[in-house]
Design brief:
With 421 residues, the chain is of the alpha+beta class. It has three domains: 5-216, P-loop containing nucleotide triphosphate hydrolases (Rossmann fold, 3-Layer(aba) Sandwich); 223-305, Elongation Factor Tu (Ef-tu), domain 3 (Beta Barrel), CATH 2.40.30; 312-419, Elongation Factor Tu (Ef-tu), domain 3 (Beta Barrel). Helix content is 17%, strand content 36%. It has helices spanning 19-29, 35-47, 63-68, 98-105, 123-134, 154-168, 204-210, and strands at residues 5-13, 75-80, 84-90, 110-116, 139-145, 175-180, 223-225, 228-230, 242-246, 251-252, 257-261, 265-274, 277-279, 282-283, 287-292, 303-305, 312-323, 330-331, 335-340, 343-357, 362-364, 369-370, 375-388, 399-403, 410-419.
């Protein structure tokens, strides 16, 4: 299993569309829950007066979630098949928890957008699909759920998929797929459904196993933000000097020529160390320690990359920001701390260009502020240069967060469109 591919999923969609039930069904049908867990949710279902086992209780762990029958926080679950390992984020459907949905979908390879076959495409469905497209989630699967409540109607399924195709045509979605299902009954989740012979595609789990995600990862642009400088200061390791961090993108190997930003000093990678010992290759996502041939000045917040493939360097950036705070608002002239990869600086909002109407995708050009869960395009000036790529090229070096300096709370999540003119 150590060499099985890891895929990150996020379930999205409106309230009561069945996101938590879908995850529970996947875990149940793939036999990845323990007997005591099953007995616990059976007992909880009886206490709630349900005449069926409520599989949503496997993910709705907060007391408030179980009492109200909703998802509030992002719940992460893990499961595996012989072909892949999955990390699945169950995100909330209520509009007031949109910021939690952004958190769960920000690292996803695949977004599952659930739709209640009875209600069809709702405003929150559009909002979550729009956010998934902004976050450049490479693959989106529209799961038309609760087909058992519309008598497994092919006509109703086609109505919903046609409407969503029209909406998705205005979004930047590279791969869009559709699956009719019933998470409660298990139709087309793990096993094929006998109730929908008109559907000729694969069930959800097989689809998740087959979607090609390897090419979505940036293995070209080598980026290594330095997080920590390791100097043991012991007799045994008196000459040891390593630079710890996580490979943001690309692949690094001993012998590679590299440059350190912002100084511009060049060197060669002497060795790459891990907890388990030296390695010959470090792909994106791996936490490592790099040792260089030359003793040059490198510190936290610096970026190690290749001399002929460097990120942009600048203090003025154009970005799309999702606002996460209900007490602080984003306005022109506001100042925040900014955290980009391992680098921290201060930031000034130079301009709020427009705010998105998420329901219609129209731009509101006269917007003066962003409030909780609102999304807008801004121009930011930082006190120190950042080493960044466009988010569409590199999700790791193209994203940042804004922090309220008074409370140290994260108030905004941003994706970089490029250098501001």
């Amino acid at each position: 299993m150590a060499h099985v591919e890891l895929v990150r999923l996020a379930t999205t969609g409106s309230v009561d569309d069945g996101k938590s039930t879908l995850i529970g069904r996947i875990l149940f049908d793939t036999k990845q829950i323990f007997q005591d867990q099953l007995e616990a949710i059976e007992e909880a279902s009886r206490r709630r007066g349900s005449d069926y086992v409520d599989l949503a209780l496997l993910t709705d762990g907060l007391r408030a979630e179980r009492e109200q029958g909703i998802t509030i926080d992002v719940a992460y679950r893990y499961f595996a098949t012989p072909r892949r390992k999955f990390i699945l984020a169950d995100t909330p459907g209520h509009i007031e928890y949109t910021r939690n949905m952004v958190t769960g979908a920000s690292t996803a390879d695949i977004a599952l957008v659930l739709v209640d076959a009875r209600a069809g495409i709702l405003e929150q469905t559009r909002r979550h699909a729009f956010i998934a497209s902004l976050l450049r989630v490479p693959h989106l699967v529209l799961c038309v759920n609760k087909m058992d409540l519309v008598d497994y109607s092919e006509e109703r399924y086609n109505e919903i998929t046609d409407e969503f195709r029209d909406f998705a045509a205005r979004l930047d979605i590279a791969d869009l797929r559709f699956i009719p299902m019933s998470a409660l009954e298990g139709d087309n989740v793990v096993n094929e459904s006998d109730n929908m012979p008109w559907y000729q595609g694969s069930p959800l789990l097989k689809t998740l196993e087959e979607i090609h995600v390897a090419s979505d990862r940036n293995l070209i642009d080598a980026r290594f933000p330095v997080q920590y400088v390791i100097r043991p200061h012991t007799r045994e390791h008196a000459d040891y000097r390593g630079y710890a961090g996580q490979v943001a993108s690309g692949v690094l190997r001993p012998g590679d020529e590299v440059v350190v930003l912002p100084s511009g000093f060049e060197s060669t990678i002497a060795a790459i160390d891990t907890f388990d010992g030296p390695i010959d290759e470090a792909p994106a996502g791996l936490s490592i320690v790099i040792r260089l041939e030359d003793d040059i000045d490198v510190s936290r917040g610096n970026m190690i990359c290749r001399p002929h493939n460097q990120p942009e360097i600048g203090q003025d950036i154009d970005a799309i920001v999702t606002w996460l705070s209900d007490s602080v608002k984003l306005r022109k002239g506001a100042k925040f701390a900014i955290k980009h990869t391992t680098k921290s600086a201060r930031a000034l909002i130079k301009d709020l260009q427009y705010r998105f109407d998420v329901s219609t995708l129209h731009r509101i050009d006269d917007a003066t502020e962003l409030r909780l869960n609102e999304i807008g395009r801004v121009t930011i000036r930082t006190t120190e240069p950042l080493f960044f790529d466009e988010y569409r090229k590199n999700r790791q070096t193209g994203s940042f967060i804004l922090i309220d300096e008074a409370t140290n709370n994260t108030v905004g999540a941003g994706i970089i469109g490029g250098a501001a003119s």
